[in-house]
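Chapter review: from sequence to fold.
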Amino acid sequence: MRVNQIMTPNVVTIDKDVSLVDAIERMRRHEISRLVVVDAGRIEGIITERDIARELGSMRSYRLSLGRMHVSNVMTTNPITVAPDLTARRAAELMLEHDISGLPVVEGEKLVGIVTKMDFAKVCAGFEDIYIGQVMQSNPRTISPYDRVIHARRLLLDEDLVSLPVLDGNRLVGIVTVRDVVACFATFQEEVPDKHKGERIRNLLVEEIMTKPVTVRTDDRLCDVARDMLERRFSSMPVLNWRDEFVGLITKTELTEVARERL
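The token string follows.
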């Protein structure tokens, strides 16, 4: 299987001089977590929700409005690119080796697509003999609804996590993603007066931004869950056992790992 068989051909791009407001809105509108940065048709970099979350949590950002922060200040330059005829297995290996979730696909110097970890859900949709309990993260990092959002942000960034299940005692009550953190910080940047911004952000609790989790079970087939994740654009789903107890997490990273092993 080759990259061009699973990649997304219609790449959403952005100019490096555009503000972060526009980048966030473009990601939200297209339900994606990264944009390829171009200048006169040439690839200049990639900007991801993770890059934005890192920037918006910095002390420097408390003093600036989103309109004054630009893509060029946040993006990753010189991203790894792949050719459309590269094997999908090798693309998976590159993502896992370099801890990245997307690779622009170029033919010559022309951008022809992008392949992401979510695209490997298309591969996993064909694996009918694998169950979630076999491939899930068994002891994922979790957080309390009463922890601060700045703590959730730090865990997501420092430990390169896709999401944080939110547990109140042993009960699963929510989930927090990098996207939730970005949306929260962006709202505060625009709506809270500068003199109160730092204090208000520091005191935000996880329960104020978490979303209701959509769960799967240990005995669900990976192929079915992969299709669901792809359709709903979920990068992760908490896993319950037959007693409705939280026991794990399945993410786009596990999908990529399974595809690497099976391709």
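Two observations follow directly from the output. The two ends are 7 Å apart (CA to CA). Residues 132-262 form a domain with the CBS-domain fold (CATH 3.10.580.10).
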